[in-house]
Design goal:
Length: 133
């Protein structure tokens, strides 16, 4: 199932209500290109320069059952270390990015070790470094 959340910059709120998000997407598509009927084609990667930002659900839940969206920060916990990553969409695939490591593309396989700890809008200053226990 395709799910999309929406960050409303003027009100500083994250909106998960799917009918409301789809209505906003349809209105944006009609405004930008009235002949375009596929509103999902209008979804663009995260762009901090706009007032409304759409983020796609990855289809993966973290270890607590919380949906993981593009733009989320996740922590992967192993017995002797933990790493924080930003969830991104690149070339049609969901990847985990950390500036100190190569991209991780085995995203779904790691979900049982992941925990959502924030997102780029509500916790923008999160540190993506490596932490060892």
């Amino acid at each position: 199932m395709i799910k999309i959340r929406m960050w409303n910059e003027p009100t500083k709120t994250m909106i998960y209500n799917q009918p409301l998000v789809l209505q906003a997407l349809a209105e944006q598509a009609a405004f930008n290109n009235p002949d375009e009927l596929d509103v999902l084609a209008e979804i663009q990667p995260i762009d901090h320069g706009t007032t409304i930002t759409y983020m796609l659900y990855t289809g993966v839940d973290d270890q607590t059952g919380k949906h993981i969206y593009v733009g989320d920060y996740v922590r992967i916990v192993w017995p002797h270390w933990q790493l924080c990553f930003l969830v991104k969409q690149e070339r049609g695939a969901f990847v985990l990015r950390n500036p100190h490591l190569p991209n991780i593309r085995q995203f779904p396989e790691l979900s049982s070790y992941m925990q959502v700890i924030g997102d780029v809008f509500q916790t923008p200053d999160l540190e993506l470094g490596t932490a060892f226990n």
